[in-house]
Amino acid sequence: MQLVVLHLFVGVHLACAGTHSLKYFYTGVSGDIDFPEFTIVGLVDEGQFMYFDSNIKKAVPKTEWMSQSEGADYWDRETQTDIGRHHAFKNNIQVAKERFNHSTGVHTYLQMYGCEFDDQTGKTNGFLQDGYDGEDFVYLDLKEMRYISPVPQGFPFVQKWNNDKALLARDKNYFSTECIEWLQKYVQYGKSSLQKTVSPQVSLLQKSSSSSVTCHATGFYPSGVTITWMKNDQDHHEDMEVGELLPNEDGTFQKTSELKVKPDEWKNNKFSCVVEHQGKTKTANEIRTNTGESVPIGIIVGALAGVLLLIVTAVAGYKVYQKKKGFKPVNASDDGSNSSARSDTKA
């Protein structure tokens, strides 16, 4: 039995100041579930620019700038490569299931990798991580240039890969050079869109007088936003929970922060939500919707298109990785991604 390790590549040139990122999310699923067996979502600056799944068996652009910049040859090559990745992930899941003694049920094997570039400081970063059933399985420590597994089931694989000096050299070159070059190219492709700045719309939402109050910021670009709460003009950090950054259909983003507060406390104090974006601040202190009104929270959140389902599904298994910086590489092809999967003999 073999565990196939995919080493992925991506790239872009920076059109607007700040940090730019290229990320790929691979999701393989095993078991009885109404979802494609394998999906790939590619993101530039947190916005989706490409997609592939095992049902449609075709890599497709998800932005106008990508459609206009790369022709049919590019997408044909990417499609063939992604079909190979699908087969590799089927093998990955099977090996992981054996390692964890899982013979039934729904299981997932996920991979996230990519790079970042700051066009003001020149600083770069790369990351590559694999997960099984939403938990860490293997990741690449770029500073030490070695693979690490937090679970014993991954030890045989990291030992083999860490002894492969040629593999580690390719990894280092990809994340320090090739990935950055592709990132810069993609950012250059989309510079007119990626340079835009759109301020958020901010609302306070509540389902009923006894439920939590949600601060909803939506329609903003780029994705960096900070949501905080004030109580009687003082910073308030208790009983609050910040939600995930989510994409809107038009390429902008939305984010929420939920404040758990009792009706009497809300009535007897002055609460406000403060949203900071691109150096500008917006404040909301009056609840916009509640029971009996015609615009429930679900409609606003439901403004996300099908792209949200694709991205959220791919990213969901990686919440455990959000405090880390790591991923896993491969050999680059002319389209910035790996041309073939590497098979490793089971240790």
Automatic annotation (TrEMBL):
- Domain Ig-like residue range list: 200-290
Q: Look up the signal peptide feature and give its range.
A: 1-17
* Alphabetical keyword list: Glycoprotein, Membrane, Signal, Transmembrane, Transmembrane helix
PROSITE patterns listed in its UniProt record? IG_LIKE
Q: Does the keyword Glycoprotein apply?
A: yes
Q: Does the keyword Transferase apply?
A: no
Q: Provide the transmembrane region boundaries.
A: 295-318
- Cite a single Pfam family from the UniProt record: C1-set
A Gene Ontology biological process in which this protein takes part is: immune response
Query: What family name appears in the similarity comment?
Result: Belongs to the MHC class I family.
> Which PANTHER family does the UniProt entry name for this protein?
MHC CLASS I ANTIGEN TRANSCRIPT VARIANT 1-RELATED, MHC CLASS I-RELATED
| Record-given protein name | MHC class I antigen
